[in-house]
Amino acid sequence: xxxxxxxxxxxxxxxxxxxxxxxxxxxxxxxxxxxxxxxxxxxxxxxxxxxxxxxxxxxxxxxxxxxxxxxxxxxxxxxxxxxxxxxxxxxxxxxxxxxxxxxxxxxxxxxxxxxxxxxxxxxxxxxxxxxxxxxxxxxxxxxxxxxxxxxxxxxxxxxxxxxxxxxxxxxxxxxxxxxxxxxxxxxxxxxxxxxxxxxxxxxxxxxxxxxxxxxxxxxxxxxxxxxxxxxxxxxxxxxxxxxxxxxxxxxxxxxxxxxxxxxxxxxxxxxxxxxxxxxxxxxxxxxxxxxxxxxxxxxxxxxxxxxxxxxxxxxxxxxxxxxxxxxxxxxxxxxxxxxxxxxxxxxxxxxxxxxxxxxxxxxxxxxxxxxxxxxxxxxxxxxxxxxxxxxxxxxxxxxxxxxxxxxxxxxxxxxxxxxxxxxxxxxxxxxxxxxxxxxxxxxxxxxxxxxxxxxxxxxxxxxxxxxxxx
Length: 470
Prior knowledge:
The chain has 12 helices and 15 strands. The chain is of the alpha+beta class. The chain folds into 3 domains: 146 residues, Alpha-Beta Plaits (2-Layer Sandwich), CATH 3.30.70.1050; 97 residues, Chitinase A, domain 3 (Roll), CATH 3.10.50; 145 residues, Trigger factor, domain 2 (Orthogonal Bundle), CATH 1.10.3120. Helix 3 packs across helix 6, helix 9 packs across helix 10 and helix 9 crosses helix 11.
């Protein structure tokens, strides 16, 4: 029979991260005079503990719980608390016995792991052994321990560290984006043709092999010429047309087009222009600055605010890119075995995450979708390996997140919002969000530590290239 239980966390010491000695090590431990424990190494990270418990310990606890249960149990034909013990035992004996077995075996396993200073990875598989001596119950618990992580000489690691600057051109482009977001439109004269930046209102209908197709027809449809909202061939056809003009043109849908029914096919479109409106961008002046929330309402203040926000975004993007390079270097210098149970847990999370994503996209029966876990195995193994390596580096070099670091990081995240104080409170009100911030700060600490040890090559990157990266 197999028991499943949530065992209390095993004790471990910083001096022995794996909690085990050389392969083949085993020991017999006597705990609390009621349990004999045998620990042995099976292979790599896999261990086995044999637990022997006196049967009367189990039975006494079962009897005690049944007596407590009998005080309040209600059954037809009996007053509360007056149900005979044999009736209570007949009704609840199996479930109580199961609970006691889970509790006692779980406690025994936790005590044995604690005594042997084992860092247990994942849940143990516990099975009862046949042929135990009379009056005893014997169980085998097979499990994995966390590995010993060996990190090599970081001074031999090589890392390309990216750097970028916010130049005047970046500020000008951002100003143009902000102006476009507040542009107004005025109808062009009848004889003026549509050009880039104009908003056009059109009717269109498309056919493939002479037949209409879903999504191929619309009336009163608006789009901005040159903004990339439509396929290039469609924009090219409308550009230069005048109000009231109609045109027929072919359009080849790309093979990777999101509409699978038309992907890779050619359609014939008829388009009629109903209205052409020219865009008018607001001037870069005090009115724009005030509209964008600049307190002093000056152009200089607006440009300074744009620079501040861009520099903040550049900082976060550089941290992310450099962190990735550092983690790659760190993994290359680490030696460790991966606990299969931890990798499997990560695989399970990733598969469930993929199903949740499919469900959000409206896929029917997404929770039953066959998703091969091997698709995620390389990523899952990298995550587990990186997590163990980072944890060891943090432990060995005291790179834990300090309260002031967490506070500063939250304030930086909140600074780009209209009401930073509200955002700070939003983070501080949720332990999970605070834990996520703490994890980021720890990773930043690790990044700076490795960069201080490794052979670093400064590599400037253009502002546009940095911002184009996802």
